[in-house]
């Protein structure tokens, strides 16, 4: 896993995407544009996740929709009060309790995600001591967001499962194009020369 911060050019190189493409992702997902070697491992992990899901056939409109729901839910759980400018990305790349984590942000909501339940008493503004919400309506709002989030989350996972065999078949087929071509191309008889244009 990446451990050092990167420049924008290094991020593009790692993602194997053009600067124009990456800038477009930053704009459409409302991500901060940073200067110098300020792109953290979690920031890059988020972008990698988006690109991987796009490769697996998930439409970008679907991803921006679920991303907006994730950010809204994290704000209701006060994850935005940690003081970090990239609070919505900081959990990306974290391991453990995968079934407690949101799809794109990788944020741990503190309970088994598919159940539709959220620990409504958690306040992430104090990382040492989780405190109770003082307003009951914040919990109710969080439940409403989760109810919107879960069907979309589950649909994306179903679509990914259906696409994975297709991607694997493509990789097997095109893993070594030169080897495939060499098997299909008959060897030239000795003493003959290549015709112009032949490879």
Identify the overall geometry: globular
- Helix/strand order: HHHHHH
Number of helical regions:
6
Number of domains: 1
What's the total count of β strands? 0
Mean pLDDT: 80
Biggest pleated-sheet summary: none
- What distance separates the N and C termini? 40 Å
Strand content: under 5%
Structural class: mainly alpha
Low-confidence stretches: 120-138, 189-199
Write the layout of secondary structure elements.
Elements lengths: L7 H8 L3 H10 L12 H15 L4 H17 L59 H39 L2 H8 L15
Helix pairs in contact: 4-5
Provide structural commentary.
With 199 residues, this protein is mainly alpha-helical. It has one domain (8-179). It has helices at residues 8-15, 19-28, 41-55, 60-76, 136-174, 177-184. Mean pLDDT is 80; it is low at 120-138 and 189-199.
Attribute tags:
single chain; 199 residues; 6 helices; mainly alpha; disordered C terminus
In short:
With 199 residues, the chain is an all-alpha fold.
